[in-house]
UniProtKB/TrEMBL annotation:
InterPro entries xref list: AAA+_ATPase, ATPase_dyneun-rel_AAA, Methyl-DNA_Rec/Restrict_Enz, P-loop_NTPase
UniProt GO molecular function: ATP binding; ATP hydrolysis activity
Membrane-traversing stretches: none
A family per Pfam: AAA_5
Domain AAA+ ATPase: 311-469
Organism, scientific name: Defluviitoga tunisiensis
Name recorded for this polypeptide: ATPase AAA domian protein
Taxonomy of the source species: Bacteria, Thermotogati, Thermotogota, Thermotogae, Petrotogales
Length: 568
């Protein structure tokens, strides 16, 4: 594995050229994956090694480029790694020297070698999304144009939302373009944020690295590091150098805890410990304290939310646009579970044409007729039923946009707390179906949506309702947002929005349910430029006001003038 010692020679990072060339070659197979799978099988056959990319005795039916890279970046013997690379060089015609040293490379445990779920569990676009990110990452690294940046961020965020991705997507991006992308594994995160780190303050202005970043924040962190590489006091000037140093310190830290001093065994044990940790729980812990840290609520409000959900099993978070209804719903679920378990929290969005057939069960056309297909609620209920000792959360965004009676059908009765566990025959089958007791439903509702009629009584009777309001006056918003923003126009704009909300509340045709929420004004990181403020006002707030006061042009113009005047 990685050879690190205090007396080690200056690393050459010869692996970087081979890895980048192989990434370029892999991209040619984006639309020829069947052939790629056969070639990879040939590599392992020629290496006299078992092909890890098999399921039930057969080759994978599809594969992503990051999974291919994991073939030689797993926890395996060094001579096997080099043998695999030699055969990759030959079979894929890579015009680079096969590396023999891998300074600064993170080798992942076997649990991470596949970056997509099994066929029975994965979504249709999971693997295609990974290829799109792979291509976007290479394009942006080689040509950092604005359009390539936007494409990268979009694909990064899409992939980050997929099953089991988390931090490890940054590891594989580092593999394919090691001088362009930062590996945010645990050793690197710890190194960046240690007390005497040159990076610490600048990184913390962007993220505390407690949770995987979105694409925009990830690139901001990369830019900060690249800027720091220019500092003559910085001991390293590239991501491979940074990763090498971080891994070296990580190894030394393990020495101090009396782990075997032999370097190979020390590193191997470190990887195994990571493996065990992920076997124990592959999800990051998420507690009540984490909720209160992220959400602009106090402990009393949080306890009320939990009690309402426990009491009724069905809860609706209602409020004006921008108060973070969906954000709160997910984090409430995670905090009750105790970790960010995305397998036990799922979300869909209702719309006016959504039906029972979409939601629970219905016939769908296929080439030779129709087939009966299950919907997300049916599947999630089954999942929860098979795991009765753990809680599951089904989040319905914009719940009031759908016809509740039509969508739930005969199951509307079964979602009531005292009817949980009872069985009923489904519309299209003779199957006896039940909504399990360990399933909780959280809906979100935009109170400013004029297109929605009065709430269905059937919905109101079966759910508890909790009002979310703008948090501009909260102490947390003051300390976590306003005080961290050095742009004086930001605070002036917030004060104007507070006045605007008072005006909206007084308006007989609107009211408190139409106020403007705080989430419009929660930037990622610290201070924001004037352009950011202008974009929020021009493209978020003003369109909202035009919808509110479409019949009062004078009032609309006055407030547009007021808002624009504050940020000039």
């Amino acid at each position: 594995m990685i050879k690190i010692s205090e007396n080690a020679k200056t690393p050459s990072f010869e692996w970087t050229n081979f890895y980048m060339k192989f990434a370029d070659k892999l991209l040619e197979y984006k639309n020829d994956r069947t052939n790629l799978i056969k070639l990879i099988d040939k590599v392992f056959d020629k290496s006299n090694l078992k092909n890890p990319f098999m399921e039930n005795g057969e080759l994978f039916d599809d594969i992503c480029p990051f999974t291919v890279f994991s073939a030689f970046n797993r926890q395996i013997k060094m001579n096997n790694r080099i043998t695999i690379l030699k055969n990759i060089k030959e079979i894929f015609e890579i015009d680079e020297i096969v590396p023999s040293e891998f300074e600064g490379v993170t080798f992942v445990p076997p649990i991470f070698t596949r970056f997509f779920p099994k066929k029975s569990q994965r979504k249709e676009d999971d693997i295609s999304n990974l290829w799109d990110l792979f291509e976007a990452a290479i394009n942006y690294a080689d040509n950092p144009s604005e359009i390539n940046k936007i494409t990268f961020i979009r694909n990064f965020d899409k992939v980050s939302a997929q099953y089991g991705i988390k931090w490890n997507i940054t590891i594989v991006l580092y593999w394919i373009r090691p001088y362009s992308y930062l590996n945010l594994d645990e050793p690197n995160r710890e190194y960046l944020l240690k007390e005497d780190s040159l990076y610490r303050d600048n990184i913390l202005n962007i993220s505390n690295l407690k949770n995987p970043p979105n694409g925009n924040i990830y690139l901001d962190i990369i830019d900060v590091c690249k800027e720091m590489f220019k500092n003559p006091d910085n001991p390293h000037h590239s991501f491979p150098e940074l990763s090498y140093e971080a891994l070296k310190l990580w190894k030394n830290k393990k020495k101090k805890t009396n782990i075997n001093k032999d370097e190979e065994l020390a590193l191997k044990k470190t990887v195994q410990e990571h493996d065990e940790k992920y076997k124990e729980s592959k999800y990051e812990k998420y507690t009540k304290e984490d909720f209160l840290e992220e959400v602009f609520m106090n402990e009393k409000q949080y306890n009320t939310l939990v009690n309402l959900l426990t009491m009724k099993k069905n809860l609706i978070l209602q409020g004006p646009p921008g108060v973070g209804k969906t954000f709160v719903a997910k984090r409430l679920a995670y905090s009750i579970i105790g970790e960010r378990d995305t397998e036990r929290v799922t979300m869909i969005q209702f719309h006016q044409s959504y039906s029972y057939e979409d939601f629970i069960l219905g016939y769908r056309p296929k080439e030779d007729g129709f087939e009966l297909k299950t919907g997300p609620f049916y599947e999630f209920c089954k999942k929860a039923s098979n795991d009765p000792n753990r809680k599951y959360f089904f989040i319905i965004d914009e719940i009031n946009r759908g016809n509740i009676s039509k969508i739930f059908g005969e199951l509307l009765m079964l979602i009531e707390k005292d009817k949980r566990g009872e069985e009923i025959k489904l519309l299209y089958t003779d199957e006896l179906f039940t909504v399990p007791e360990n399933l909780y439903i959280i809906g979100t509702m935009n109170t400013a949506d004029r297109s929605i009629a009065i709430i269905d009584y059937a919905l109101r009777r079966r759910f508890s309702f909790f009002d979310l309001k703008p948090a501009f006056e909260s102490e947390k918003f003051e300390t976590n947002v306003i005080e961290k923003n050095s742009n004086p126009k930001f605070k002036a704009l917030i004060n104007t929005i507070k006045d605007l909300n008072k005006e909206i509340s007084r308006d007989d045709s609107l009211g408190e349910g139409f106020q403007i929420g705080h989430s419009y004004f929660c930037p990622n990181g610290g201070s924001v430029p004037n352009e950011w403020l202008e974009n929020i006002v021009e493209y978020e707030i003003i369109p909202l006001l035009k919808e509110y006061w479409y019949d009062n042009q004078d009032k609309l113009n006055d407030w547009i003038k007021e808002l624009k005047g504050v940020i000039k």
